From TrEMBL:
Entry protein name: Putative ATPase
Signal peptide positions on this chain: none
Species this protein is from: Actinophytocola oryzae
Gene Ontology biological-process annotations: regulation of DNA-templated transcription
Pfam families: GerE, HTH_77
Domain HTH luxR-type stretches: 637-702
UniProt GO molecular function: DNA binding
PROSITE patterns associated with the record: HTH_LUXR_1 (PS00622), HTH_LUXR_2 (PS50043)
Organism phylogeny: Bacteria, Bacillati, Actinomycetota, Actinomycetes, Pseudonocardiales
Length: 704
């Protein structure tokens, strides 16, 4: 070559030739587009939709021979069936093109030829590396494969059996999936699979336990370090060694990963499997596993699972003296029951807040802020939520922080500050975005879209929702994203597509699994009532509105109660003025100034009183006060049910449900003495002398 400097030789080979002056250019796999084109070109039948073809080509690593062999099955199997067959790709891809060397005729023959060219030591290293499902570093390879393997690793890279990614500070290696399947099969056929898989499990366990201290300091850094090994962790957890403890310990170290990413359903399955390895255990490790199950359920499927798992974790952790797990379990119990019972959730959160530290305290404060928000005590809610957000964000707890930001944005919106609400909602979206999950990203987008709808910016609301809807549509399991379908339904309703709105509101209802006692239900039913009214299904709309009203009153959600009253007013012209005034009274009492304007507009239209319209720049409070005076001049009766104020009626409802004065005070955010005063006024107006008589009378009037 030196004697012929003008000569250039282009050679193809599976490894470098090793000659002086050689420049190596590694032929990459086919691009995604080229791979799809090759598949469709070689397919005997029309392949139909492109998405399954793209997935098949990606799983075949863009290797032309593998793609050709898979495409040849299209005369017998659909593309989804071919995809399922790739789990055993060497059994499926057995018949290659004619007129080529035998070693190129089938995928397994091609792989065997490359394997047989290795020396004995490199063959051993090759099959051992097949245990890594998600790539590896030099350190993890040494821990699993043993010995001085750097030279062998270099030779496998040179032979294109291992790919080295040197872009980051630490080189990460991987096998193409087709090659890894072959290596794993060689490992399974050897007498060392058990040893290597035990080492792989131990290596993953060591990595996760070494990183555990980061959880309390920087969850972003912890998540980044653990998430890169997700495929390896899955493989390690699927191994069943003689001693189950390593698998239990590994599973117990990972719930935060599944809580924060989109693999919650898989995490629930893996945690259940780890719990079932010792189902009767009452040790601290079992408590951690159960607390982990509750933590993952929180964002994957909380209804019917989170509370029960957390309670079991609390009991076992308390027995075992594991105070940290007990504190977390107490918080998760509060979150689990929160959907059904605000008062119990508040009490449990108070316990967690008093006993806990760090995340447990901030999480408890955030939950209490959410409860105050839903009870429409927004001044108190804002203080609690801002306090929690500061602590959560500083620690990298962006999941709960984004949810708290969404509740805070909503409180600010209800108070009438649309610009401030948008700023907070956008911060919530930014906080959630790095998680790339369904639950947090979807919920944050729903809040931002709701703010934009309140501002009349339907295009901006669509822009916020559409990417998340596409993301969720691609989920393997229906994800738990409260508020997303409801916000989409509201957007479709405002955009003039009420039939689509009905579909979306029904989707949100289906998310609840048929349970209407959760706080999400009355909000959705109110929107559904509006959509049904718009499509002309009046009787169904009335039914949905009345269910929403009853649930809002039972749960204790004044804003939703007012929304339901407003919707029922649109369905009952004879009572419209009365119902709108009732809604206005509730809204004004709780500082819901944004929706007060809606009530005033409706009343102005019904009464032809222009003074009930809020003029540009006018303080809505002035118009509310005028509406109250005008209503008073028409005369509220001095006795009888119609004489009760909205607050007195709320006290009656709770008293009729059997709540004590302190409980009523907690529910309505008033002192015990104030409750007593309201009840004395009620007794006088209704002519009753005790709670039994009051309950009987209330039963006659609380049908709606």
């Amino acid at each position: 070559m030196r004697a012929c400097p003008g000569v250039t030789v282009l050679a193809t080979s599976r490894e470098p030739l090793g000659v002086v002056g050689e420049t190596v250019w590694r032929v990459p796999p086919l691009s995604a587009q080229d791979a799809v084109e090759l598949f469709r070109e070689r397919a005997v039948q029309d392949t139909g939709a492109l998405d399954p073809v793209r997935t098949a080509c990606a799983r075949l690593d863009g290797i032309p021979l593998a793609i050709e062999l898979a495409a040849a099955w299209s005369s017998t199997l659909s593309v989804p069936e071919i995809l399922r067959g790739l789990d055993d790709r060497f059994a499926l891809l057995v018949s290659g093109p004619r007129g080529v060397a035998a070693r190129q005729a089938t995928l397994v023959a091609s792989m065997a030829w490359s394997h047989d060219l290795l020396d004995d030591a490199d063959r051993v290293l090759f099959r051992r590396l097949g245990v890594f499902a998600g790539g590896f570093t030099r350190e993890t390879a040494r821990a699993v494969c043993g010995g001085d393997m750097l030279g062998g690793l270099r030779r496998l890279v040179d032979k294109s059996l291992v790919v080295a990614d040197t872009r980051d500070a630490v080189t990460r290696y991987r096998m193409l999936e087709t090659i890894r399947h072959y290596a794993a099969a060689r490992l399974a056929a050897s007498d060392e699979q058990e040893t290597i898989r035990d080492r792989h499990l131990a290596t993953m366990l060591g990595l996760v336990e070494d990183l555990a201290p980061l959880l309390d300091r920087d969850k972003d850094a912890w998540r980044a370090a653990v998430e890169v090994e997700q495929d390896n962790l899955r493989a390690a957890l699927s191994w069943r060694p003689g001693d189950p403890e390593p698998v239990r310990r590994l599973a117990a170290g990972l719930p935060w990963l599944w809580h924060l990413n989109r693999h919650g359903p898989e995490g629930l399955s893996l945690l259940r499997a780890a719990i079932d390895l010792r189902p009767d255990a009452r040790d601290a490790l079992q408590a951690r596993l159960l607390a982990g199950l509750a933590l993952v359920a929180d964002t994957a499927r909380p209804l019917g699972l989170e509370y029960d798992a957390a309670q079991a974790a609390y009991e076992i952790a308390t027995e075992a003296g594991d105070t940290g797990t007990a504190q977390l379990a107490r918080l998760l119990s509060a979150v689990g029951v929160f959907y059904l019972d605000f008062d119990t959730a508040w009490s449990l959160a108070e316990e967690a807040r008093a006993a806990g530290t760090g995340f447990v305290v901030d999480g408890a404060v955030a939950l209490q802020g959410m409860i105050r928000h839903l009870r429409d005590a927004h001044d108190e809610a804002e203080v609690l939520l801002r306090t929690a957000i500061d602590g959560l964000a500083a620690r990298g707890d962006r999941g709960v922080a984004s949810t708290a930001l969404g509740f805070l944005a909503s409180s600010v919106l209800y108070g009438g500050d649309v610009a401030g609400a948008r700023e907070l909602a956008e911060e919530g979206v930014r906080m959630a975005r790095p998680l790339a999950d369904y639950h947090r990203v979807g919920s944050a987008a729903a809040v931002l879209a709701t703010v934009e709808m309140a501002a009349g910016r339907l295009d901006a609301a669509t822009e916020a929702l559409d990417p998340v809807i596409r993301l969720v549509a691609g989920a393997e399991h229906p994800p738990f994203v409260p508020g997303l379908a409801r916000a989409t339904g509201q957007l479709r309703l405002l955009a003039g597509s009420p039939e689509e709105a009905v579909t979306w509101f029904n989707r949100e209802t289906a998310l609840l699994g048929g349970t209407e006692d959760v706080y999400l239900a009355p909000q959705t039913l109110t929107g559904l009532a509006a959509a049904l009214r718009a499509v002309g299904s009046v009787s169904e709309a009335v039914e949905a509105g009345e269910r929403a009203l009853a649930l809002a009153r039972r749960i204790g959600m004044p804003r939703v109660e007012a929304d339901a009253l407003s919707e029922l007013a649109l369905l009952d012209p004879a009572r419209a003025v009365e119902l709108h005034h009732s809604a206005l009274a509730i809204r004004a009492e709780h500082g819901l100034w944004l929706s007060c304007a809606d009530s005033l507009t409706a009343l102005a239209d019904l009464t032809d009183d222009p003074r009930l319209r809020v003029a540009p720049g006018q303080d809505v409070r002035e118009v509310v006060e005028y509406a109250r005076r005008a209503r008073g001049r028409r005369g509220r009766p001095s006795s009888g049910w119609a004489s009760l104020t909205p607050t007195e009626e709320s006290v009656v409802r709770l008293a009729a449900d059997g709540l004590s004065n302190p409980d009523i005070g907690t529910r309505l955010f008033m002192s015990r003495s104030t409750v007593k005063t309201h009840l004395s006024h009620v007794y006088a107006k209704l002519g009753v002398t005790n709670r039994t008589e009051l309950a009987n009378l209330a039963g006659q009037h609380l049908g709606t």
